[in-house]
């Protein structure tokens, strides 16, 4: 039964997945074309205001290496937006969307366990994120094959790609929990997108304004630092935090959908 539900998810979202994957591949490919040779950005760093260096200096210095610049492509708003679109689209459309359209009534009339519906939605969400991340990684591999960079290889970004997948797995799981208690895709999309945007804004503002630094751990994006991952590897605490949010969000979705009225 989960296989049949997954085939429905594929029919609903395959066009969007194809376009988003193409966008990720092309964008990360272009990042390899823009990556500077070693040492070319040192002068730019020296020209930046001290206040900017105080807040973002560590990240900017990490970006100066070819591998660090490629990692920047995984924290760029365009790449984050592509992944966020998939996470919110699938989560909102799989549960709340089906209820709003009335198709959930057809599923409820058949011997389909509610847990199977949520499991299929979760599998589509996580599988699609994997496709998008691999497409972006493929764009880097293709770009480096055409323009090799000193001290940079596609394998250097493996930890970044995996962490990016985990970040949006956590975001998508929370969006799925929201979808499990809403009655239409519109409201679920608005709430999930708002939560994700607020999380991103909180991380940015907390880094720039020290009085708000205490609230930064409340943002999912505070546990995702591509340049640091390239330099030192993913922090175990960050991986654990995102994994806990993913499991908790998925568990909430299963429980809430099991007991709600359709």
Can you describe this structure?
There is one protein chain. This protein is mainly α and 262 residues long. The chain has one domain. Helix content is 76%, strand content 0%. The longest helix has 33 residues, at 2-34. The radius of gyration is 20 Å and the shape is globular. 41% of the residues are buried.
Distance between the termini: 19 Å
Please count the helical segments: 12
Kindly report the average pLDDT value.
Answer: 85
Bin the helical content: over 70%
Overall strand count: 0
Structural class: mainly alpha
Poorly predicted runs:
none
Overall domain count? 1
One letter per element, helices H and strands E, the order comes to HHHHHHHHHHHH
Q: What about the largest sheet?
A: none
* Coarse morphology: globular
The radius of gyration computed from the alpha-carbon positions, rounded to a whole number of angstroms, is 20 Å
The percentage of residues in β strands lies in under 5%
Task: Tell me the layout of helices and strands.
Elements: H1 2-34, H2 42-47, H3 50-63, H4 66-72, H5 77-94, H6 96-101, H7 103-108, H8 114-146, H9 158-179, H10 185-208, H11 226-232, H12 236-259
Q: Which labels suit this protein?
A:
globular; single chain; mainly alpha; 262 residues; 12 helices
Question: What does this entry show, briefly?
Answer:
The chain is mainly α.
């Amino acid at each position: 039964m989960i296989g049949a539900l997954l085939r429905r998810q594929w029919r609903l979202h395959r066009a969007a997945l194809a376009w988003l994957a193409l966008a990720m591949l092309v964008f990360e490919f272009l990042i390899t074309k823009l990556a500077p040779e070693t040492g070319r950005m040192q002068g730019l760093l020296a020209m930046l205001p001290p206040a900017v260096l105080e807040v973002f200096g560590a990240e900017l210095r990490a970006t100066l290496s070819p591998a660090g610049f490629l990692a920047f492509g995984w924290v760029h708003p365009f790449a984050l937006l592509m992944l966020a679109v998939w996470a919110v689209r699938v989560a909102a459309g799989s549960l709340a969307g089906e209820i709003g359209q009335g198709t959930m009534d057809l599923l409820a009339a058949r011997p389909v366990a509610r847990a199977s519906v949520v499991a299929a939605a979760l599998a589509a969400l996580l599988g699609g994120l994997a496709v998008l991340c691999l497409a972006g990684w493929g764009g880097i591999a293709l770009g480096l094959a055409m323009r090799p960079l000193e001290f940079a290889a596609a394998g250097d970004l493996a930890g970044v790609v995996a962490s990016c997948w985990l970040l949006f797995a956590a975001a998508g799981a929370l969006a799925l929990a929201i979808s499990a208690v809403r009655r239409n895709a519109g409201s679920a999309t608005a709430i999930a997108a708002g939560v994700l945007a607020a999380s991103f804004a909180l991380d940015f503002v907390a880094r720039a304004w020290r009085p708000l630094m205490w609230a930064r751990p409340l943002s999912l994006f505070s546990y995702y630092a591509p340049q640091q991952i390239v330099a030192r590897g993913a922090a175990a605490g960050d991986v654990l935090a995102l994994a806990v949010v993913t499991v908790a969000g998925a568990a909430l979705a299963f429980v809430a959908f099991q007991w709600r009225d359709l």
